[in-house]
Design brief:
homodimer; 406 residues; alpha/beta; Arc Repressor Mutant, subunit A; Nucleotidyltransferase, domain 5; five-stranded mixed β-sheet; 12 helices; 13 strands; DNA-binding
DNA sequence: GCAAGTTAGTAAAAAAAATTAGGAACTTTA
DNA sequence: TAAAGTTCCTAATTTTTTTTACTAACTTGC
């Protein structure tokens, strides 16, 4: 049997390609179905007669792509044999490339991680050596997992920094008219899907998290900086040149702090980790006091410490966080008016103070959002936890292959 | 030959349905193609062999859906007969329903208007009588045009006011568990596509206007009020409950005027026709002077008059307009950061002062937009003119049928 | 417990589509 | 102007698919 390729459909329409397309369709449908399917169900889905559906299914069975799962209990009539995906034949590689962290997972199609590897000594730089290091890391991860290359559908990569519309990194690894994507596709002989790490997390929230099954979602990342992944009609919005979702530089009122973009008033200067520390400094300079923070030790504090202090009951830390949540809520209220989302998901480090943050966001959002779009918009914090980004890459690939429901 | 239905594909997959689907595909392809096509080209497009493509094409020819257009000039080899759509077999009805205006056009598939009718005495109200009036208006327009019902693909309606996700008006005509859409589909026995009039205009800009072929567009309507149609990846964004694009209530800085939504600072209170008049009153009260306007005659002025004064060189009117453009630009800059559009199109009454307005918008937009997304974003005024909205409905229907390129 | 009803699956017949092969209609080159 | 090369198109052949008809495997009602 020919290899089943799930990205880049063969355009030629001869018999074998048509059959392969139908078999891929069967696999896709089985991968999305929560229960095994009978031949009549499969045939209906791929829009052929039962005899052809039978033939295609039997060939997939012979090649071990699918497994017979026994008879189905029905109310009447002869009971059909049902078939399910052989999950051991379909693996995906998920990769996370951050400034100082490299992480890869081998994930089964049902999203169970079977193997993973980290590199904490990694430092991202725009050099051929770094590109080589990434390539070798992925290669060795695959090798050590023991999974055969022909059982791998492809590689999904979530990467820090700007990614353009062609899913190629703007800043990194564009040597000799080649992009990271092209380079890796050649080296690994596997389809590659690359995107911004925030967008990858957005997809993971859609597939595994609370955004599952929701059509229109704003996934807002609050860590050191602000990030946003906009999902409309279940699709991630990329924009004309791949820069969509630049939430940090939205301005919604006058502001004093100078942003690294050269302007003032950007929401990114008012909300998130970096701003949190600035808020603390200003508060202490204004004479406000706290059990946990003193002005002369200011250089020893991380923004994490402020979040910790909130959990410990520090009134000043709470007040600062509350103000930020209020501002963030006001900015999000504008998004609600504009995009009418069904759900806003908070991800990132600030999730650790989610109850405090979301209450404050709710207060702020009412100041700007219209009543009608707001009543249908939920605000929730992610439940997925950290260290999931490489899995997010895998989700992204499976979604691109249309082998995953959401 | 069975009727070709272009909306709601028959799900049954027997032979005849498959053939009809292929024939619809041929029609769709011909409708989008700028030149007639040969049988080999058609066959390649519908992914069949040449003999089957020939058979399907010949049947369409026999039924007069398509016409032979003579031989094509080629570089070598036997010259193929080419086929084009018989535009006289495919008509669309476009309808515009406004507060005090009813307008319908019968449009050929190449978007030539063949007949149109207006009703200026119409007053929109949520009553069965009004619904009946609309129905009779559409029926009589079709009748008077002389076009046979079986030559009409469907009816596209652009309607004022909120329209939900199921493309049903929120405010109007929801009697007896029936919507306007359902009611008309029953009465006219034609497929109906309904949407908000601003979104319909957005689609018209995509199909006929300067947004043609552009992936990501913001169509901003500046008339008495502000309206926005967001087009991303060539699709109009509707939002979770159909309320997306509520640009008028975006807040981007503190404002004093009270909006009808109950808040202050909404951009709709600062920009567009109603705000223009308020700006004029305030300026005159502050002692500013103009050749064209006096405070004691303020009730006699329409916002149109202020736009006229701009064209006549009135410095005060210009200053007011310029301030509005600047503010609008600042708000749009946020949209640019967020959605990274390729193009912003200005539509609505303010197009009459487009040069003044766009210059001001450019100044404002630089205050908030990031450099990178702004460099790839054009700002232009619509060239389509007024009285096009019913044609916009037709565009919307053709787009929903996938019978139009953009 | 047996007939009647229902759904699965398959073998045979019929239909449709794809290949193959070759002629038609053209250009280019010698 | 004749031969070679190209593409279109169709007739004949082959392959594939659907349809039809039938058997298998089950439940339910009498």
């Amino acid at each position: 049997m020919d290899k089943l390729e799930f990205l880049s459909d063969n355009k030629n329409s001869n018999l074998r390609n048509r059959q392969l397309k139908q078999q891929r369709d069967i696999i896709r449908h089985l991968s999305k179905s929560p229960f095994p399917l009978s031949i009549p169900e499969i045939s209906e889905y791929i829009k052929t007669s039962v005899p052809t559906g039978t033939k295609l299914t039997k060939e997939l069975l012979k090649n071990n792509y699918i497994l017979a799962e026994g008879k189905k209990e029905t109310d009447n009539g002869r009971r059909p044999t049902t078939y399910a995906l052989n999950t051991d034949k379909f693996y995906v590689v998920g990769v996370e490339i951050l400034e100082k962290f490299l992480h890869a997972s081998i994930v089964r199609i049902d999203l169970d991680t079977v193997y993973q590897a980290k590199n904490r000594k990694f430092i991202l730089s725009d050099t051929p050596e770094c590109l080589d290091e990434i390539t070798r890391f992925i290669q060795s991860t695959i090798k050590e997992s023991g999974i055969q290359a022909d059982q791998i559908i492809g590689v999904g990569i979530g990467m820090t920094g700007g990614v353009n519309r062609q899913r190629e990194s703007i800043k990194f690894f564009n040597f000799d008219d080649n992009s990271l994507k092209q380079y890796l596709e050649n080296k690994l002989s596997l389809p590659i899907i690359l995107d911004n790490d925030t967008r990858a997390i957005g997809i993971a929230e859609q597939v595994l998290g609370i955004a599952k099954g929701v059509e229109n979602v704003l996934v807002i990342k609050v860590s050191r900086n602000l990030g946003l992944s906009i999902i409309l009609n279940r699709k991630t919005i990329v924009g004309g040149t791949g820069l969509a979702g630049n939430f940090a530089h939205i301005r919604f009122k006058e502001g004093e702090r100078l942003c690294n973009c050269g302007k003032t008033g950007c929401i990114g200067t008012e909300v998130a980790g970096d701003a949190l520390k600035k808020d603390l400094i200003e508060a202490l300079q204004n004479g406000e006091r706290s059990l946990y923070f003193q002005l002369d030790k200011i250089d020893t504090y991380q923004y994490h410490d402020i979040l910790d202090a909130v959990l410990k009951g520090d009134a000043l830390a709470f007040k600062i966080l509350h103000d930020q949540g209020d501002k963030l809520g006001q900015a999000l209220g504008n998004m609600v008016n504009l995009l009418n989302p069904d759900l806003i998901v908070i991800v990132g480090e600030f999730v650790m103070v989610k109850d405090f943050l979301i209450d404050a966001i709710r207060i702020g959002i009412r100041k700007t959002a219209l009543l009608e779009p707001l009543t249908t918009c939920k605000i929730e914090a992610s439940t997925l936890g950290r260290y999931l980004s490489s899995k997010a890459g895998a989700c992204m690939l499976l979604k691109a292959c249309d082998m995953i429901e959401y």
